[in-house]
Design brief:
This protein has twelve helices and nine strands. It has about 270 residues and is of the alpha/beta class. The chain folds into two domains: about 210 residues, 2-enoyl-CoA Hydratase, Chain A, domain 1 (Alpha-Beta Complex), CATH 3.90.226.10; about 45 residues, Lyase 2-enoyl-coa Hydratase, Chain  A, domain 2 (Orthogonal Bundle), CATH 1.10.12.10. The strands form two sheets. Strands 1-2-3-4-6-9 form a six-stranded mixed sheet, with helices on both faces. Strand 3, helix 2 and strand 4 form a beta-alpha-beta unit. The longest helix is centred in the middle third of the chain and has 19 residues. The radius of gyration is 19 Å and the shape is globular. Bound molecules: 3-methylmercaptopropionate-CoA (MMPA-CoA) (1HE). 3-methylmercaptopropionate-CoA (MMPA-CoA) binds next to strand 5 and helix 4. 3-methylmercaptopropionate-CoA (MMPA-CoA) (1HE) binds next to strand 5 and helix 4.
Length: about 270
């Protein structure tokens, strides 16, 4: 597919630790620093922010994955030199900004995980909308034992996935969850055999990309915010979003397709 340079602006600005490609309307971003187990240095985090903040309008979904045996070993510990208080806050806020662009960006993101998904690597994965784990994946928050604290949004995103008690346990005791255990507690939505993650991620991204863009937008931007509201406001927000969605031309067309027997039924294959 030919894509104008303007639409693919972010692809030109990426650091060598990130590699972007496309499969039709799916953008694929690979953490590309296997020699350092895809540890996230500042340039990579800024590259993530640039990439997710500048997706072409022909992109329907993104697959994020990591080169090598490990998805990501988290924060690049060699960059964790002594910083002043304000500088440290700003550093953490830079991660928040970058990962916010993922969670609250333009299109859904499918994250494919293998090997270590630890510390900031888990924080990165938690910002995606769908997580696919290869059976080699394992999850940990070694911050507790390294004398630091999470700074890439885990305090907000992980309790939503696994609950505060489990996150506390991971940080206090260094507990490691393997792929199956992680799946059982909500860290992934899919588990696949080693080497199958990218194919599964692409298949899911393709499927997600077939939805009406306004529905994907509502799922990404409205659903998680309703979870943070009091029930009465949540119901009202849902009703508003439902009305906005069903009034959309694309929705009207899709509804007619079903009623006139042109659309697939909702049933297991
Ligand atoms: C690194 C990093 C890193 C590897 N920062 N350089 N994260 C951690 O505490 C996890 C630290 N990493 C590990 O425990 C292990 O590297 C792994 C279990 C992930 C992989 O082990 P292995 O045997 O395959 O590789 P390795 O020999 O340990 O590492 C290969 C190289 O990558 C080596 O460098 P080299 O120059 O000696 O070849 C490692 O030093 C380097 N490397 N991980 C820097 N993380 C926003 S706050 C978030 C806070 C956190 O993320 S804390 C969690 C940090």
């Amino acid at each position: 597919m030919s894509v104008s340079k303007a639409k693919r602006g972010s692809l030109r600005k990426l650091p060598a630790t990130l590699h972007a490609s496309r499969r039709g309307e799916i953008a694929i971003l690979r953490l590309n620093r296997p020699q350092k187990r895809n540890a996230l240095d500042d340039a990579t985090v800024l590259g993530l922010e640039a990439f997710f903040g500048d997706l072409g309008d022909d992109t329907k979904a993104v697959v994020l994955h990591g080169e090598g045996k490990h998805f990501s070993a988290g924060l690049d510990l060699s960059e964790l030199t002594r910083r002043g208080l304000v500088e440290s806050v700003e550093h953490s806020r830079m991660w928040h900004r970058a990962f916010d662009r993922i969670e609250f960006g333009r299109v859904p993101v499918v994250c494919v995980m293998q090997g270590a998904v630890v510390g900031g690597g888990l924080e990165l994965a938690a910002a995606a909308h769908i997580r696919v784990a290869e059976r080699t994946a394992y999850y940990a928050l070694p911050e507790g034992s390294r004398g630091i604290y999470v700074g890439g949004g885990a305090s907000v995103r992980l309790p939503r996935l696994i609950g505060t008690a489990r996150m506390m346990d991971m940080m206090l005791t260094g507990r490691i969850y393997d792929a199956e255990q992680g799946h059982a507690i909500g860290l992934s939505q899919y588990v696949v055999d080693p080497g199958q993650g990218l194919a599964k991620g692409l298949e899911l991204a393709q499927r997600v990309g077939e939805n009406a863009p306004h529905t994907n937008f509502a799922i990404m931007h409205v659903l998680p915010r309703i979870a943070g509201m009091d029930p009465a406001s949540g119901f009202m927000m849902e009703a508003l979003m439902a009305a906005i969605s069903s009034g959309n031309q694309e929705a009207q067309k899709r509804l007619a397709d079903f009623l006139e027997k042109r659309a697939a039924k909702t049933a297991p294959k």
